[in-house]
Amino acid sequence: MRLQMCKALAYYVFLLAASCECYDNRLVDLLKSKNVTKVVLGGLKTGQSLLAAAELLADEGLLLYIARECVADDKIDRGEAVLQHVLPFLADVFHFEDFRTQLAHEIMIDMFVEFKTVKRAG
């Protein structure tokens, strides 16, 4: 599996699932070494690469988010079936506007928790 890191923000990382050539824990180890706890997945082949990446990352305890408009499959029925019936067991699947709202709220909450838990001088 080849995953390209597109953008990192706080504890979130945005990944594009490109292909499922090999499975090992290098990606998971990298994400955990950077204290990443939440991953936003997007890409092609919803029923293959995206599903495989979601299974790998969910098995490692990472929280996953998927915006429906940011994924595709060459077989529309298969992609829709995976989005409706399989991926919701592994990830939070949103329409893009709901995804933007949810992500903004979660980032704000994460920043609040970090602010409250930081040690203060004195």
TrEMBL record:
Signal peptide feature range: 1-22
This protein's UniProt keywords: Signal
InterPro entries tied to this protein: Isochorismatase-like_sf (IPR036380)
Protein name in UniProt: Uncharacterized protein
Species for this entry: Durusdinium trenchii
